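Hi,

Apologies if this is the wrong queue. I'm a grad student, and the batch job for DUF4223 domain-containing protein from Mixta theicola produced an output file that my downstream script rejects. I'm not sure whether the problem is my script or the file. Here is the sequence I used:
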Amino acid sequence: MKKACKFAILSAFLVTLTGCTGSVYNKEKNCDYDYLLHPAVSISKIIGGCGPADK
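Support response: The file is valid. Your script probably expects a header line. Output copied below for reference.
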């Protein structure tokens, strides 16, 4: 029973996490960056690797 509970919790965590991922392209559409939970938290976005993002 404990294994089933741990599996259910892990599965719910992974489903939630993968539902919050994505990619954002810059204005020129020649560079994109991936984010895990929110686009503003991406390391590429923080260091400005692609320039301003187009929403």
